[in-house]
Amino acid sequence: MTKNSRLAVLRRRHGLEPPLRSVPDLPNDTLMEKQSMTTTTTTVTSTAVVPTAHGSRYLQQLCKHWSHNLTVEFSREQGSVIFPHDARGAAWPGDGRLLLDAGDDTLTCRIEASSDGQLEALKGAVVRHLDRFAFREAPLHVDWRDGV
Questions:
Q1: Which CATH architecture is the domain 27-146 placed in?
Q2: Model confidence, pTM
Q3: Among 33, 49, 108, 134, which has the minimal tally of Cβ within 10 Å of its Cβ?
Q4: 28: how many CB neighbours lie within 10 A of its CB?
Q5: How far apart are CA 89 and CA 70, in angstroms?
Q6: Are 115 and 137 in contact (CB under 8 A)?
Q7: Do 133 and 62 contact (CB within 8 A), yes or no?
Q8: What digits encode the pLDDT tens for the residues 95-117?
């Protein structure tokens, strides 16, 4: 069995075989400390309060969906998603961040971006994903308030 065969890769992934190279132990930092190491130049913000009785459900669905390829932290009531400045071939000045807060009958979405273009792109992504997950209620009323 070669070191890069499919079976060898699967065995390493599940801990049945040692890694090809040693991985140094990383310090046990919090997400906020890790975020400070990324490129962040927050200059523009926008907030939307979305009326829905299922805010917690949509928050968790959004965060689980984006956790596959983005830095995400969430609970039933709050969530945070970091959109890297170079994601999907983009070249924004800094990372974007989505903050989610689920209330009893609302979902508050706050976007912090490094440019107006990034802000508009993230607004569109959030609305498209919310409508996809809230298809029974779609389209949800999402009224963005810039600078809030």
A1: 2-Layer Sandwich (3.30)
A2: 0.71
A3: 33
A4: 6
A5: 14
A6: no
A7: yes
A8: 999 999 999 999 999 999 999 99
